[in-house]
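[audit] Reproducing an earlier prediction to check determinism. Same input, same settings, fresh worker. If the tokens differ from the archived copy the diff job will pick it up downstream; this log only records the rerun itself.
[audit] input (127 residues):
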Amino acid sequence: MEVKNDSIRPIMPPRPTAINPSNPYLAENYCKQLIDMINCFNFDLDEKSEVGLELCNFSENITMNIKKINYFNPSLIIFDGIDISSNSSVRIIQHTSQINVLLKVLPRVNTDEPKQPIGFRMEECIE
């Protein structure tokens, strides 16, 4: 696991994704902001690494290889992925006011497949 350069990464991209100004507190907006921040973190990673996510507000921390992030307006964020410690599929549903995440550099699970730009794809709102 290597970082391409050791300079300090920006927290947000130069042109962040536009959020819904009529209601900036929707889960959709939080989801877009999370993806922007993860894109910035992922930018410096080599081809053998990808972004992992550690959720910090459970009794024990859970490190996930994220496959997908969804949202359910007005206030739920859904993380789908693989729990690194047990190699099992997990889905975590959290209220936007409870999200605390630690982005980590993880080895890619399958280096034979093309690297996804941010390790997952944002899906449309679950309806």
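[audit] rerun output stored. Observation attached for the diff report: Residues 119-127 have pLDDT under 50 and may be disordered.
[audit] end
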